[in-house]
Amino acid sequence: MGKGAPLRWIENRRLAHYLHGTGIEIGALWRRFPVPPKARVWYVDRAAPTRLREQHPDVTGEIVRPDVLAEAADLPFAPASLDFIIASHVFEHLPFPLRALRVWYGALAPGGALLLKVPDKRYTFDSRRSRTPFAHLLAEYEHPESSDWRSHYAEFIERVHGRKPDEPEISQAAAELQAARFNIHYHTWIDDDLREILEYTRHVWRFDWRPVIFWNAHFYRKESVALLVRNGR
């Protein structure tokens, strides 16, 4: 057990205070977020466990069997039908994260909570990658047909695996990863970037939710943690 484990346990207890009723956890893989005993959770993922195991060969634990097969940004739930949504280390895997936020906000009932945990690139294998500018996210959200998926894969190969951009193999490797829809961090951020994204949804899109918790990445918590509650109850 690491030095930060007791602190993370305390933090998770505090976060769980806002998770009640019926909700979902997206992309739990092998690690379910601990919710209160009376909370009902449906687990959502985009593929069955066998396929998820192929996409995440480094995972050694038993993968959670999804109750619902769906993409994170295309949920099959009625508007305002969920009391909570948990997305831990999911946001960075989404090609169009702004679209996901719109879908998640729409699915939350008044008083419902969104729990986001997003790795801070400074503390992960993404440390050599550039931060994704908000303008880039917005451009891809507004014009998804112009999104250059292959460039995301190429940048991942160059910066994470240390390949030189002029190596001819990079283009082929990027094409193969794209064809397989290999699961990478499409985007990388630090805590200030996540805060900017959430503030945009509130002040420009006029989403009626409020951040009741926002924790920056720390020495034992290498992720930004945000918990937003939709107003109205």
Kindly report the spatial arrangement of strands forming the biggest sheet.
Answer: 3-2-1-4-5-7-6
CATH superfamily of the largest domain: Vaccinia Virus protein VP39
**How many beta-strand elements?**
7
The end-to-end distance, rounded to whole angstroms, is: 39 Å
Overall geometry? globular
Residue share in helix: 25-40%
Which secondary-structure class do the elements indicate? alpha/beta
Total count of domains: 2
From the alpha carbons, calculate the radius of gyration and give it in angstroms.
18 Å
Biggest sheet features:
7 strands, mixed
- Name the CATH class of the largest domain: Alpha Beta
Sequence stretches where pLDDT stays below 50 over 5 or more residues: none
User: Whole-number average pLDDT?
Assistant: 91
Beta-strand content estimate: 15-25%
**Number of contiguous helices:** 7
Draw up the topology in text:
Layout: H1 5-16, E1 22-26, E2 40-45, H2 49-55, E3 68-69, E4 82-88, H3 97-107, E5 108-119, H4 134-142, H5 149-161, H6 168-179, H7 191-203, E6 209-215, E7 223-230
Parallel strand pairs: 1-2, 1-4, 2-3, 4-5
Antiparallel strand pairs: 5-7, 6-7
Model description:
- There is one protein chain.
- With 233 residues, the chain is an alpha/beta fold.
- The protein folds into two domains: 5-121 and 187-230, Vaccinia Virus protein VP39 (Rossmann fold); 134-179, no CATH class.
- The chain has helices spanning 5-16, 49-55, 97-107, 134-142, 149-161, 168-179, 191-203, and strands at residues 22-26, 40-45, 68-69, 82-88, 108-119, 209-215, 223-230.
- Strands 3-2-1-4-5-7-6 form a seven-stranded mixed beta sheet.
- Helix 3 links the parallel strand 4 (82-88) and strand 5 (108-119).
- The longest helix is centred in the middle third of the chain and has 13 residues, at 149-161.
- The radius of gyration is 18 Å and the shape is globular.
